[in-house]
């Protein structure tokens, strides 16, 4: 049965992307009516089966049509937005192109949701705001949401600005619920094959403190965030419960970041990207691990 706390009809942006495909499939599976939007793909059911609208989010008019149900064949009131569309990492496009696309897309999504009277927005922030690639060591470990963003790239700078923008949209509208999910590095099951080789060099994945997020658990986090009903802007780190390594988390920190304060006793492979807040506030609980998909013997 569909969770009554979930909104009935949701627009998902970035729907044909890596995370978007998992999110659309998951939300539809739990009974949410999804209008999938992206500027790429769509006619091919391998991209995203079901209702789809080709939208370039940098064009405000197209976003308003999608959110107000005024595009032909896509009528129906929208209750919430899941905004995942972006150039998804530093270095894929020029800095200025990344900033221009991502900042315009997110402003248009936030503003069009406001214009359409939509009170719930969940969007993809990023683990990068925690200070990746940690050339400057983290302030403590596990890292959490308690210190100010430390963007080190233009991509991350834009994510930090989005978090700030969300705070102001919520200040303007006391009924608005905005949830920023600081996803770790998104993985599909096919991506797990090289994981056992990471152990040979602890420097290889230190850039995000050896974290990852299984796309299916990312989708679960989106579902939990859509059920969140406390007005205001909140951000959450979303990672899996373990690291990508077979070595212990404590030994990794001792070798690579010997001067960094470890704030609590660490479980053997415990994530160094704390998901305590997401567990506590959203009820997020990762169900997957790369260890279930790779033969470690
Ligand atoms: N992949 C990761 O490791 C990772 C980590 C942290 C955060 N994120 C964030 O999660 C979100 C999803 O990432 P992903 O890995 O699925 O990326 P992806 O590139 O697979 O998907 C992003 C989608 O956004 C669409 N898009 C980009 N600009 C658009 C625009 N102007 N209008 C309409 N559609 C547009 C693209 O066509 C693409 O389908 C992004 O916001 C990304 O920044 C990703």
TrEMBL record:
Signal peptide: none annotated. InterPro entries: Epimerase_deHydtase (IPR001509), Lipid_A_modif_metabolic_enz (IPR050177), NAD(P)-bd_dom_sf (IPR036291). Gene3D superfamilies: NAD(P)-binding Rossmann-like Domain. Residues 10-195 form the NAD-dependent epimerase/dehydratase domain. This is Nucleoside-diphosphate-sugar epimerase. CDD domains: SDR_e.
């Amino acid at each position: 049965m569909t969770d009554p706390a979930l909104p009935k009809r949701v627009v998902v942006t970035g729907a044909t992307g890596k995370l978007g495909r998992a999110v659309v499939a998951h939300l539809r599976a739990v009974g949410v009516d999804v209008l999938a939007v992206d500027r790429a793909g769509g006619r091919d059911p391998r991209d995203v089966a079901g209702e789809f609208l080709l939208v370039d989010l940098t064009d405000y008019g197209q976003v308003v049509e999608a959110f107000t149900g005024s595009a032909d064949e896509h009528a129906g009131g929208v209750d919430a937005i899941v905004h995942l569309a972006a150039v998804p990492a530093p270095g894929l496009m020029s800095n200025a192109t990344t900033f221009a696309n991502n900042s315009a897309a997110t402003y248009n999504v936030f503003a069009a949701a406001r214009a359409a009277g939509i009170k719930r927005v969940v969007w993809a922030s990023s683990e990068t705001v925690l200070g990746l690639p940690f050339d400057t060591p983290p302030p403590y470990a596990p890292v959490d949401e308690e210190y100010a963003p430390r963007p080190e790239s233009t991509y991350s700078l834009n994510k930090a600005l989005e978090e700030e923008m969300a705070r102001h949209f919520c200040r303007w509208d006391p009924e608005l619920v905005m949830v920023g999910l600081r996803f770790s590095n998104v993985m599909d099951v096919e991506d797990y094959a090289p994981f056992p080789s990471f152990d040979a060099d602890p420097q290889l994945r230190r850039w995000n403190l050896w974290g990852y997020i299984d796309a299916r658990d990312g989708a679960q986090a989106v579902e939990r965030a859509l059920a969140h009903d406390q007005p205001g802007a909140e951000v959450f780190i979303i990672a899996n419960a373990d690291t990508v390594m077979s070595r212990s988390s404590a030994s990794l920190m001792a070798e690579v970041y010997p001067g960094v304060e470890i704030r609590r006793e660490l479980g053997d492979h415990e994530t160094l990207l704390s998901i305590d807040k997401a567990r506590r506030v959203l009820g997020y609980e990762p169900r997957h691990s790369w260890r279930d998909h790779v033969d470690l013997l």
